[in-house]
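For the sake of transparency, this paper describes our internal protein records without simplification. Because each token names a local backbone shape, the row as a whole describes the fold. One such record is reproduced below, unchanged from the form in which we store it.
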Amino acid sequence: AIARQGELRRNGHDVSLSINLSNKAFEDPELFNKIEMAIRLSKANAEKLIFEINETTEISDIAATKKIMTRIQGLGCQFSLDDFGVGFSSLGHLTSLPFEYVKIDGSFVTDLANNSDNKALVNALSEVAISFNMLTVAEFVDSIQTLKILRLAKINYAQGYLIGKPSETIPVELPDFFRANEFKRSNRYSM
């Protein structure tokens, strides 16, 4: 994925890519060196790389993980807590690890327009993220109505079929509602 971002950048598309990291990745003593080398060799824009850690991931050594995350952030990369709200470790991870983003789990976004419980949870999760000075991403966004509700909840970014279906290529054309300037383009893609 790092090489892909470098390739896209060389072709005039300096987009952000999100890359999932497992807890096993943090057990690799060469993780930082591998990421640094991949960025250097591919000429990727480190500031456009966001590494995602699933909130349900069991992190055995918080201090060591924080140290590695901080070193990777020193390259310009960022971190996101994925599936925020579904696990019991969320708040512990938020207070212990240096995340820039939280990605609200799609189970709370699905049927948002018709589910007052999910609406309350999304608003609460957004407020928690704001209080920690983190940006938010909502998964599973599939309608303009859901996107408008998320906007009112102060969610920063959206991911889902409304924005674009999973694809091997990064689309250059935007959906009509982005061209109408009703919503900002985020240039964020997950891999």
The beta strands are 16-21, 49-54, 78-84, 101-104, 135-138, 157-158, 188-190. The CA atoms of residues 55 and 93 lie 7 Å apart. The first strand starts at residue 16 and ends at 21.
